[in-house]
Amino acid sequence: TWRHNGSLIFEKYGQHQPLNRQAERYAREGVELSLSTLADQVGAVAALLTPLKALIEAHVFAAARLHGDDTTVPLLARGGTKTARLWTYVRDDRPFDGTAPPAVVFHFSRDRAGEHPTAHLKGWQGILQADAYAGYNPLYDPGRPPGPVAPALCWSHARRKFFELADIETNVRKGKPAKDISPIALEAVRRIDALFEIERSINGHPPDVRLEVRKQLSAPLVTDLERWLQGERAQLSKHAKVAKAIDYLLSPNHWPGFTRFLDDGRVCLTNNAAERALRGVALGRKSWLFAGSERGGHRAAAMYTLIGTAKLNGIDPQAWLADVIARISDMPVSRLPELLPWNWAAPETSVKAA
Asked: What is the pTM of this model?
């Protein structure tokens, strides 16, 4: 049963196979399992693994720096399908040579109201790498207890706005004449790419090393970029597409977040860690709809937390889930950390079973 449940969970949340498809496959193999039976098993496993999910969440929110992001997910509700949200928070200290294991937490909500990240990060203080979503703004309030969160914005987001205006191949394919390609956007992409090139050379180095290189090499490039963009912006109409890309980057509310990496060696230039965590959700959401209540959404968030953290630690999620489901009921609370992906030693029998 534990092997079956591990497979059931992994296929649903790791391989995006809805329960009705799994039921059909079991039926073809001569095993009749109703949809309600499979759903009950998923619920039982989710409840069983709740203590493990809580340990992962505590580990994530013990970090001094987090990546945060969200994506849409379909929610089947009265009157049709609603657009709900899955939020992710990623702890990954490896870019600055940190020794803490990487981990990810997901949360579900019915909408994208700012109250959700405020609740998720209640009591947490540190650096939040995210996009410029206004819903995060209450976290940055100087009067926030226990203190304000420091925003670090994503240069990949800023670059993308210029790249879309400078992508010659795509624009020509869409039938736009070459003269429509923005030379300002093209130059902005070139300058931003120079910053990324520096970052590649210091990935995985300690914060002090990263900071010293940034002070010497990146800071002058950022100063020149700001001066150049301000000069170009002064000559543009506010309606120009490239003006909007410049305004996004140079906004007084945004620029301190974009330049925070020049003052803290732990900060990454991008929020790609969170975007990678959401990739599986984006790939799978077309395959499933949540139930009418929020329960299915919260259950999915818990399972994505477990599977995503296993993947971040290079652990086979299916083998890990099968073993954990088999052992967790007989394990005292004090020993539960042994089952966390970064502490887990794969028994040979579990690997073979998976």
From this structure: 0.90
3-state secondary structure 273-305: HHHHHHHHHHHHHHHCCECCCCHHHHHHHHHHH
Lookup: tokens for 286: 């077309």
Residue 350 pLDDT: 46
Q: What is the DSSP-derived secondary structure letter of residue 139? A: G
User: DSSP letters along 61-102, please?
Assistant: TT-SEEEEEEEEEEEEETTEEEEEEEEEEEE--GGGT--SPP
Quote the CA–CA distance of 312 and 318 in Å, as a whole number: 14
Q: Which two tokens mark 216?
A: 């010497």
Task: Give pLDDT tens digits for 305-315.
Answer: 999 999 999 99
DSSP 253: T
CA distance 70 to 74: 13
Contact, 127 vs 264, CB < 8 A?
Answer: yes
User: Is residue 180 within 8 Å of 168, Cβ to Cβ?
Assistant: no
Tokens 């940190």 identify what position? 98
Alpha-helical (H) ranges within the chain are: 2-9, 19-28, 35-48, 50-60, 115-120, 155-166, 168-173, 183-202, 207-213, 219-233, 241-250, 255-258, 272-284, 295-312, 317-327, 348-353
Minimum mean pLDDT among 77-91, 188-202, 258-272, 339-353: which range? 339-353
Look at residues 95, 71, 70 and name the one whose alpha carbon lies nearest to residue 264.
Answer: 95
CA 186/CA 167 separation, integer angstroms: 8
| Placement of tokens 């410029």 in the chain | 132
